Structure formats: structure tokens, C-alpha cells
Fold each of these.
Amino acid sequence: MTIDRNARLREVQSWGDHFRFVIDAPAIGRDARPGQFVMVKVSEGSAPLLRRPLGIHDADATGIELFFRVAGRGTEILSRKRAGERLDIIGPLGRGFTLAPAAKGRTAYLAGGGRGIAPLYFLARALTAAGAKPVIFYGGRGLADIPLRDRLEKAGFEVQCSTDDGSFGFAGFVTALVEKELARVKPAVVYACGPDPMMKALAAITAKHGLPAEFSLESIMGCGIGACWGCVHRIRNEGGDGWVKICEEGPVFPGERILWP
Ligand SMILES: Cc1cc2nc3c(=O)[nH]c(=O)nc-3n(C[C@H](O)[C@H](O)[C@H](O)COP(=O)(O)OP(=O)(O)OC[C@H]3O[C@@H](n4cnc5c(N)ncnc54)[C@H](O)[C@@H]3O)c2cc1C
Ligand code: FES
């Protein structure tokens, strides 16, 4: 874990209230693994006081990329940063996705709901490098909620989009699209990130099909480093159910261990 108070925002791309940041932060970029996150200080002053957690959208030896949607005060302040400005970032944090050895030479399904697509780009790149074939399912309420579809396709990934309102791609929930495709191709593993109801539905689908699955959970986080107990979630352990800190033991957990609210 590195505290980089001198990370530099190299490039900003935006689509309405969605933003992609390319950030020079070599120490964080070198250590980052798909599914890990960073804690970003959004303002120079004391408000908002707490850093905000954001998944690592991509990483290499020069730094990291973030992809976020404006949700409130913190992400709104962040969205006003311009190329050249300095950022204060802690990361990489948490435990990311497992690159299942069984996926080599086989298909892996990656399902992202809305801003939950953020960590799946990095994961898709890593899976490709490990010899798997990622298929990305990208769902949103409408066309404006799936702005990364061109970027994903240009990177050479197979992408299937869904919109709840039918304005683009499959009309319906992304979970229904995944279930439809499962009748055609059974993947070696399923990975997902998105709103809890979406992931809960997907957990039921993967369990029904006997497929291994990993889910990246979200929680409001105070510290991101295990100090505040602000991010607890109920998880099934060998010794019985218990509360764990998502920032330390997650945010990614195997499907069979998650007790959905
Ligand atoms: C591990 C992790 C990775 C994340 N990665 C991304 C990412 O890559 N891209 C992205 O756009 N967002 C991501 N998020 C969510 C992001 O952290 C929140 O949207 C952000 O902290 C909201 O801050 P804010 O000040 O803008 O909004 P606030 O004013 O703090 O909150 C606005 C609204 O969002 C709700 N909210 C705040 N934090 C969360 C949260 N963590 N989960 C669900 N609802 C929340 C609040 O209850 C409130 O209703 C991630 C969250 C976690 C825990
Ligand atoms: S966010 Fe503080 S313990 Fe997890």
C-alpha cells in the first residue's frame, strides 16, 4: 500500500456524469491487481473529510485509471479536477478477483451493472493475458448508463449490453441477459460488480447452474484500511456466519460465502 500525495491527473474523459481519470501514480499502478481499490482525497480542505473508495479501472507501471459516476458531494468535487492537477491517493487496497486457473483456454463471464463496470476492464485484460476469453455483460437503466461500451469493444473484448428501458442492446436486466447466454455457453467462472440486487440475483443464477462466481461488494467506507469498522458485511465462514470488514477481507468474495441483505 502506498500513500501517493503527488499523483498527477494526466487525462480526463467524460460522458455526462461519468468520468474516466488517467493518473500518474507509478507505485500504486505497479502493485495493483484487478478488483482492488484506492481511497481518494477529493478536496484540499476538510470537507468532505473522508476519502472516497473507487475501484481500479486499469493499471500499469505508470499509474492507474479510475472510472466513476457522480453520486454525491465527494464524486462531484472529484469530477471538477482537470488534467495536470495533483491528487492524494492511498492504494492499492483490499483483496481483488481470483484469476481462476480453470478459466485458461475457456470463457469467463464478467457482469457489470452501471458504475460496477469500473473494475471489470482491468480484470478482462488480466484474464486475456492469462489465456482466458472474457465476455463482458454491461447493463444500465438506459443508454446513458453504459458509456464504456465503445472503449470495451475497441479493446477487443466481446461485449453484450443490456438496458432496462430497451434503449440499447438486450431489453431487460443484465442478469436476464447472462441467464439467456448461459443456455448457449457455460463459462468456467462468473465475476460481477454492481448494485446489491443485481449481484444477489446473479448469485442465485450461478448457484443454480453450479458455477463458481466472485462478487465485488460495495459499502460506505470511512477509512478503507480496516480501522473504523464502517464497512462490515455478513459472510459465511467455516466456523459459522460472521461480520467481516469489506475493505480488508474484500471487496471481492466468492459467491457461496456472501449472505445477501
Ligand atoms: C470498494 C469500492 C469501490 C468502488 N468503486 C467505485 C468505482 O469504481 N466507481 C464509482 O463510481 N463508484 C465506486 N464506488 C462507490 C463510490 O465510493 C461512492 O459512489 C462514493 O463514495 C460516493 O461519495 P459521494 O461523496 O459522491 O456521495 P455521498 O454524498 O457520500 O453519497 C451519495 C449517495 O450515495 C450513497 N453511497 C455513498 N457511498 C456509497 C457506496 N460505497 N456504495 C453505495 N452507495 C453509496 C450514499 O448513501 C448517498 O445516498 C465504490 C465503492 C466501494 C466501497
Ligand atoms: S472502511 Fe474502515 S474498516 Fe473498512
Amino acid sequence: MGYGDHLMAIGAASRQHLEDPQRRLVAIGDGCRVESDYSDLEHGLSFLANQRTVDAGAPVTWIISYKAFRPYHDHAAMEAQWSLAHPARRRLFGRPDPRTLVDRLGYYVFNPQYRAEPAPLVLTSEEAGLADKLGQKPFVLIEPHIKSTASPSKRWPFERFAAVAETLSREIEIYQVGSPELPALAKARRITTHSFREALPYLKSARLYLGPEGGLHHAAAAMGTPAVVLFGGYVPPSVTGYAMHTNLTGGATACGSQHRICRHCEAAMANIQPDHVLLAVREILQRPD
Ligand SMILES: [Zn+2]
């Protein structure tokens, strides 16, 4: 949860704004409070409302998306499944608190109708200048890590990323962005970035992004950059993935499991061999520009 969720919300807000004949501003949040934790992404996005606009009573429409409620989860189905599994508790205590629903149920149910839309992020002139400069020499951006709060089911083994980087580095330069505390790929040019936003020019100018399902794959879509995304078995690519990307599941159907270790997700990731990833990467790199 975090930047990726907000990027999806910005993508949805952009579409909502364009489809609104009155072109009202769109607020992202719970219907009263605007989600402001990721406002650094909103540079130049004039269709978004901030809290001041909402408080001033300006006509806005909402994208309901906040920490305990993301629209790509099917909250009604989750409540129904929990009630079916625990009829006595449901009778005694009534509806479960939506904030604790996933912990009680043990898994997410995804909203099969939801489709992620690329967020139309705007680079600052400084960022666009850096992207232009970087883009003069082709490179692939690899992110081998998942964020510490992400489900471990999203992790493809680091050694496999390293094997892919090793082979690819003979063909094209490899970049890795992020915090210097995390292990580096031996073959990558390491760029220390201090914020999510700092990675955007690198994503914009990369020929391709390779990494897990997460904030950077949403940002790659926002930058219009092709990607090979290691989905595995946790979340369905039809929901949080983009048609412009190659999304690898290892043949699994998404489970949404909240267990620290999900054997099904481990098996899904184990099914994705470095050779499969290299094939998908090369297929994209060989496309004409
Ligand atoms: Zn699983």
C-alpha cells in the first residue's frame, strides 16, 4: 500500500475528470478527507482537488481510495465470505469493522471489474531534462527488491534477478535505483535515490523496467515505459497490471493471501525461470522504437 495505490487513484481520477461533462475537480480520499501522503506525485495535475478546495465547498467528484479501502478489492465479497464462514459471530456482533476484515478473513478478494489506468504524471522541467539526458544511452532499469511492508508473496528471488542482470548486462546497460542499504545487483549501475519521485526520470528514459508488482511498475506505466512485471500468484494482472506490460504469473491464479508464507505464491514465483524473464525482456527490447 502506498505510492502504487495513489498512482492507480490518480489514473482513475484523470479518467473520471475527462468523462465528466462539467470537468469538475476530482478529490482522492474517503469522501471527506483528501489523501495527502503522496501529494509529491501530483505536480502539474490540475484536475486534482486538494483539501482546501474541498473545504471551500468547490464542486468536486471523488475517487474513494484510502488506506483501509482500495477500490481494487471487493469489500462486499470479503464481508459475505467472512459472514458465511462465521455465522455465529456475525449474528452476535453484526458487521465486522471493514478495517479488520482482511485480517479476519486471511485474504483479499480482488474486484474483477477494476482496471488500472496509467497515471498521467507530469515531470518537472528539471526531471524532464534529466530524463532526456539519460535516454541518450539505452538501459534497462531493474528493481530486485519489494518494499518492507509488501506481502512477501510479491518477491521473486534476488539470485534470479542477479542471473538475469548478469546475462542482460552483456547486451545493454543495467541501472538499479533506490536506497543504498539494500543489496545491489553486481552488474548494475547503482543510482541512489532518496524519494519515490526521484526514480521517475530513470523510469521515463529506461527502455524497459523489470521488477515486482508494486509502486515502480505503476510509475513505469505512468511514464509510458514498457515493463516485465513479476506478478506471481498474489494479485491478478487483470486488476493491478497494465495491458502495455508483460505480466508474469508463473501460471497461478491470484490468491490474495495475507499469510506470511503462501506456498501457492512461492510455487508461482518458483515457476518463473530467469530464461522466461529474459525471453520477455528481449521480446520488448527487439521491438522497433
Ligand atoms: Zn498465494
